[in-house]
């Protein structure tokens, strides 16, 4: 798995991603990412693209999960 985060342009509605919520420390090792489908892409941020998931969680994308 690469450490490269996607850009906001690479994201679209319905794609499954792993996000870290804005109130969590992105560098923290005990951060639990939230997995869900993208509902809205807000734009690129230093911490990763900011999105809102279909479950209402807003956070920064850490990785895209691909169907195996």
Structure write-up:
- With 68 residues, the chain is an all-beta fold.
- It has one domain.
- Helices cover 0% and strands 40% of the residues.
- The chain is built from no helices and 4 strands.
- It has strands at residues 16-21, 34-43, 50-53, 58-64.
- The chain has a 4-stranded antiparallel barrel.
- Strand 3 and strand 4 (58-64) form a beta hairpin.
- The chain is globular, with a radius of gyration of 11 Å.
- The model has no long low-confidence stretch (mean pLDDT 85).
- It comes from Natronolimnohabitans innermongolicus JCM 12255.
- InterPro entries: DUF2196.
- Pfam families: DUF2196.
- In total, the number of domains comes to 1
Structural class per helix/strand content? mainly beta
What is the topology, as strand order, of the major beta sheet? 1-2-3-4
Extended strand count:
4
* Shape by Cα distribution: globular
How far apart are the first and last residues' alpha carbons, in Å?
Answer: 14 Å
**Which stretches are low in confidence, meaning pLDDT under 50 for 5 or more residues running?**
none
> How large a portion of the residues is in β-strands, by DSSP E?
35-45%
Alpha plus pi helix count: 0
Order of helices and strands: EEEE
Radius of gyration: 11 Å
Q: Quick one: biggest sheet?
A: 4 strands, antiparallel, barrel
Approximately how much helix is present in the residues?
under 10%
Mean pLDDT over the residues:
85
């Amino acid at each position: 798995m690469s450490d490269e985060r996607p850009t906001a342009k690479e994201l679209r509605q319905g794609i499954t991603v792993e996000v870290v919520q804005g109130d969590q420390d992105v560098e923290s090792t005990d951060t639990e990412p939230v997995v869900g489908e993208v509902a809205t892409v807000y734009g690129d941020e230093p911490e990763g693209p900011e999105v809102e998931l279909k479950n209402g969680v807003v956070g920064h994308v850490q990785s895209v999960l691909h169907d195996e």
